[in-house]
Design brief:
This protein is an all-alpha fold. The chain contains 19 helices and no strands. α1 crosses α5 and α1 runs antiparallel to α10. The longest helix is centred in the first third of the chain and has 48 residues. The protein starts with a helix and ends with a helix.
Amino acid sequence: MISKIKKYGFGLGTNWFGIALTVITQVAFARLLGVSDYGRLSLCLAFVLLPLAIVDLGVAPSTPRFLAMNIGKGRYDIVLAIAKKTVWATGVIALFYLSLMMFLKPWIVIWMNMPKAETTLWCLIIFSPAVYLSRWVSSILKGLGRIRTQIFLDSTLQRGFVLFMGGGAWYIFKTTDSVAIGYGLSYLTTGLVGLFLCIKELRKFEVKRDEPCNFKFKDLLLHGIPINIAGLAQRILRRCDVIVVGALLDESAVGLYRVATTITSGIQRLITPLNTFALFHMSKNVGEGSMNNIMNYYNKVVNLSICLSLPLYYLIFRHAEDFLVAVYSSEYSAAAPVLKVLCVGFAFFVAMGPMGAVFNAIGKNWIRMWIVIGVGIVNILLNILLIRALGLVGAAVSTSICFFILYVLFNISFRSMDIHFNKGASPFLTVFVGMLIASFLEISFLKTNTGFYILLSIFSFIVVCTLPAIKTYNVLKNR
């Protein structure tokens, strides 16, 4: 028990330190660059990182499951085969993506209607192979169970390099492009350090030659493609709002929205190590045939995630404008209504727990894929409609509604497969009650935008109507 606490405590502590570095970095860049240039950098990052997942073909997200399962079976020869084949596949994919983005770069600049963004895009695209290297390293370390090392590399070292290299580049050159180069160099440095660590870990395995290696790379791709498509749809769910804001509004609006999403997603990242640990243990349990333990891991992660994140969303919700002025500057105070709406939406997102890890571990990724694709399409349409109608707040409303829909659909799909993970009080009810309390206190003690509360009331009404529907569905199914 003590060893588990130490293991999870180190992972969480390292991840939180990395989040602190991310917050410091984003605050520093937001202050140094200003709303417009910060928005341009954020938009370019979204364009480069969003399509990166689909070109991956599911290699990175499916690799940890196959590694953990074969470690559970004691098939270390297959573990080494997976590592060798995925590194070659990642290299080919990285070169293809680099060529594709270089070809599309002029068209992206024209569509964005931002001539200054061309060099910024180039500075980010040229380092895209380094991003793929970092993703491969992360997937290998997750699959080998070296979660603490993976969290240290991704959450602390890489983000520390962004702050050091991006900040140093700004200090010397005073340009947005230099900060973009700093981002690229951070991925390259982290990837090279991680590559050395992966090679060191893989050399520890002793291969037994008495059984033939029956691993087929096709199986990994067939498992990974639905994860990949679902991951892309989830990226669209979380990043397309930035792109739509840039298309319908301007760079300054992107900067304001990016600040709000950085804060809310930063809180969500507090529980990322928990999801990573869950994926490894669930996949290992599948390999060992211990299916009952999956439910236990899921319940623990969900409850701990809510306890860690909900109080922070509550505090940010209550003091959004004061927080933005104190941390960023008065220039970003206009993002307060957006930040409040996103606090509501991300609270539901956190309450889902490691649902993606569950689908991955039990091999039901096609179900997850179709759910996330559908919600992603809804998010794009809602973004276009609501941004035109409500401005910047519309993007936050769209994202929050889609997070709620995603939570409901995931729960329904689990129950349709006779998987009942939640015992006792539902995380959904916990989030709902907590946000209602936050809304009541905010309305009672602080005077803010009336239109925002009208939107919040509509959203709460939808939630209230959905609860009986879920209950009725479960009663009818049990009959």
